[in-house]
Amino acid sequence: MDRREFMAGCLGLPLLAQAGAAQAQAGLTKIVFPFAAGAGGDTLCRLIAQEMAPVLQRTIVVENRTGGDGLIGIKAVKGGSADGSMVLVTTGPTMYLLPMVETIPSFDTAKDFMPVSLLARFEFAVVTGPAIDAADFKGFVAWLKAHPDKTSFGVPSNGTIPHFMGSKLGKDLGIPLTRVPYRGSAPILNDIIGGHISFGITTLADALPQHRAKGVKIIAVSSAQRSPFAPDVPTLKESGIDLVADAWYGMWLPAGSPPEFAGKLGAAASTALAKPDVKEKLTAIGLIPVGSTADGLSKELAANTAFWQPIVKATGYKIEN
User: Fold this and answer.
1) What long-range pairs does 136-141 form, CB within 8 A, spacing at least 24?
2) 20 to 30 Å CA-CA from 264: which of 22, 192, 195, 318?
3) What is the DSSP letter of 235?
4) Nearest-CA neighbor of 156 among 191, 118, 107?
5) C-alpha to C-alpha distances, 257 to 78, 91, 250, nearest whole angstrom
6) pTM
């Protein structure tokens, strides 16, 4: 079964068992995922929902509330009932970057949400194409310096980790880089292959198929250690850039939710992520299952916030709201 077939199968999972209205009210939990169906995070939600439902003895559905770079779904859970009926699963960067870049923050992660568990990690990659004649990262830097008029790079969206990775990369290398925002990774990869942009920063999982087909070349990954998905590719740190920028999915409840339910929910999620078949399905789409305590999620969020805050501030980037 290939990745597309697997993800399509997950989308076909029944979202809501037949139940009376009273039963649904008493035992229904919605996992709100603030991005579109079909991508890795959505698949993660549907897999753990299926595993957690019998453990928690609740009907669990996944609801995609898209828009605003994640804000629509986040605000829906922020304003939801703190009774276990709404759960937020989103990327870590949405929870620490959005409050940094909004002129008036729409939410305060610490005050508006209760941490539950870290779920899975994913990685970013620096990707080049046929236009850049470079065997490794050192050669890539030399090429950029020799072609100052061709330093444009693609990112999946403004205000994201790839956006700020590019800003730090340009500063560390002393090379002015021109950011080009796209809607997702696919058009970036197409434009790299076509020679319309010199390089891109995307999720590693999105770039791997074209890298293996030799349409593009991944010259560095952003994780602390080499990726299990591309062990032949060095990290940015190995390449002389002091930058670790992996990302992750986490789970939160609205502030004021019952701590007992939060504990049970986190334990059920971690148990689900430890199952061999769940691990296999997630690694097949480029996700590294983790699972953690609420405290582990809080510490991860705090560390990421402290690291990225000065980098984001230095760019001056803001979203008007």
Assistant:
1) 136/219, 136/234, 136/239, 137/219, 137/220, 137/234, 137/236, 137/239, 137/240, 137/241, 138/239, 138/240, 140/199, 140/219, 141/173, 141/175
2) 22
3) B
4) 191
5) 11, 21, 16
6) 0.84
List the one residue out of 315, 265, 298 whose CA is nearest residue 49. 265
Q: How many CA atoms does the CB half-sphere of 238 hold within 13 Å?
A: 16
CB atoms within 10 A of CB 246: 19
Residue written as token pair 């919605």: 30
Which strand (E) or helix (H) includes residue 119? strand 113-122
CA distance readout (Å), 180 to 119, 130, 156, 189, 215: 30, 18, 9, 12, 20
53 within 8 A of 65, measured Cβ to Cβ: no
CB of 94 closer than 8 Å to CB of 65: no
Confidence of residue 86 (pLDDT cuts 50, 70, 90): very high
| 307 alpha-carbon distance from chain centroid | 17
The predicted-structure confidence for 204-235, as pLDDT tens digits, reads as follows 998 999 999 999 999 999 999 999 999 999 99
Calculate the alpha carbon distances from 69 to 27, 117, 146, 289, 300 in Å.
30, 22, 36, 24, 21
Residues linked to residue 122 through DSSP beta bridges, in sequence order: 247
